Amino acid sequence: MKKNDYVFDLSALIMAVLGIDQCQRSRFLAAASCVLLVMLLLPAITHAQEKPAPEKLYLTLEESIRIALEKSPLIRISRLSRDALGPEIRRAKAVFHPVLGASYTGTESHPVDELGPGAPIETQTARGFIAQEMPTGGLLILSNDITRDIVGTAPALAGSDVTISLVQPLLRNGRVYVATRPIKDAEYDVRIEEARLRAEVLRVTADTARAYYNWNLASRVIEVVRAAIQRDEALIEASEALLAAGLVTVRDVISARVSLTKDSDRLVSAEADAESAKNAFFDVLGLPLESRAELLDKEIKFEPVPLEPEKWIATAVQDRPEVMELEERLAKSSLNVEVADNALLPQLDFVGSYTKAQTNTTLRRAYGLRGDEWSAGLVVSVPLGNVAAESGLVRARIEHARLKEQLFLQKRQVELEVRAAELKLRTSRNRIDALGKVLEHAKELYEVAKASFARGLATNLDITSAQEDILDAETDLLRAIVDFNTGLAELEAALAGRL
């Protein structure tokens, strides 16, 4: 029977069982074909909808730092905080922009005296002015008034005057630093946020270097443990061969297998450490944890540097952004103390004006401005008690003293960080020298033990002991070098710059 005939007979049997007559056969076959087509295409559709694997990144330390500085949410937040304060400076300076204005008033009065109602008086006044806040705290106004007076049935009179007036505080609020304080505060705030941004950049840079070195270390430890496992396997083969020759006992074979088991357990732990280090690395960079990457700086190098702790401390205290931030806050606090101290003074204002004016029957004639008028005077006011100003000054002085102590503590903290980084470098360098010698001696002992074991003059306990010493020394040496390199990164962060 042909395949097509088999399918036809099977479909006929199914329709007979289901009670489908001949008229419904075509619709049944069409529906069955659609279901079959969907079942055939479903794996391909599902595969097409699968999320593509992320592109693998090949990263150096410098490239990793660049990505971290670009994608770090904390750096983006600090940068936005700084940028948000930029318009505040322009807004504060806008106080000293001139203000143009105009007004119009009309009045009508009906005087009454003992003789009876007088003639009604109608006055119309239009005024234009330009006002300018002064950096000295004063207010300068240039104005032009045009008036028109109508008294009863008498001819209307037109008047015009141009006046320049000045109100200048001489004591309270009469200082440049008082008037320009909002501008100075905005500038201080921008520099404070700039320092915070720099501090965040230094922290992210150090964290990225530390995560890079830790993942690299974990990967190298895996390689070292796998090399130890290969030595264990070679030792097992040699032990079994010598056992067959009657040169060693079963104990030697079991001892070699125990060493292999221990190193296999170390490999599992090392792979888990590498996975954790990789996740920490992607977290610092701000990348998805499912990202794929390969570190290009696989060789863990040791490049010693001269230790200059006193020079480093002086540089760090001068350049650290945390210190700069507190210095800016201290300068802002000093300005607040000066302004609060100024508020205790009595109010003494100089008020002066000069006017050119003329009145005539027509506005055109009134613009001759042949008349003039001078005025000058002083206005004095003394607050009684002035409790609010005194309280503000006390609070400003306390805040200033607090910031001084905070600056002192910050400088001390910077010094401690530099000394800790220098101690870490010095300790790591000494450990690197010592562990290098330990590794060299362990390899020599391993070769001696291996030769003696091959001649049947020693047990493989000497070999396994030497192998453990090699593994421990290699692992410790790698960690010491990484500690030195991370110490350099921490030191550069503490110095706010490269060595």
Describe the model.
- The longest helix has 68 residues, at 387-454.
- By secondary structure, this protein is of the alpha+beta class.
- Helix 4 (73-93) packs antiparallel against helix 6 (181-244), helix 6 (181-244) runs antiparallel to helix 9 (321-342) and helix 9 (321-342) packs antiparallel against helix 11.
- It has helices at residues 3-18, 25-49, 61-71, 73-93, 176-179, 181-244, 250-285, 309-319, 321-342, 363-366, 387-454, 460-495, and strands at 56-59, 99-109, 112-113, 116-117, 121-133, 139-151, 157-169, 292-295, 347-360, 371-381.
- It has three domains: 3-49; 61-85 and 183-331 and 400-495, Outer membrane efflux proteins (OEP), CATH 1.20.1600; 98-133 and 138-172 and 347-381, no CATH class.
- The chain has twelve helices and ten strands.
Brief rundown of the structure:
With 499 residues, the protein is of the alpha+beta class. The chain has helices at residues 3-18, 25-49, 61-71, 73-93, 176-179, 181-244, 250-285, 309-319, 321-342, 363-366, 387-454, 460-495; strands at residues 56-59, 99-109, 112-113, 116-117, 121-133, 139-151, 157-169, 292-295, 347-360, 371-381.
CATH topology of the largest domain: Outer membrane efflux proteins (OEP)
Structural class: alpha+beta
Cross-sheet strand order for the largest sheet: 2-5-6-7-9-10
Largest sheet: 6 strands, antiparallel
> Which CATH first-tier class of the largest domain would you pick?
Mainly Alpha
Cα shape: rod-shaped
Return the string of H and E elements.
HHEHHEEEEEEHHHEHHEHEHH
* Helical segment count: 12
Mean pLDDT: 84
| End-to-end C-alpha gap | 87 Å
Q: How many beta-strand elements?
A: 10
Percentage of β-strand residues: 15-25%
The CATH superfamily of the largest domain turns out to be Outer membrane efflux proteins (OEP)
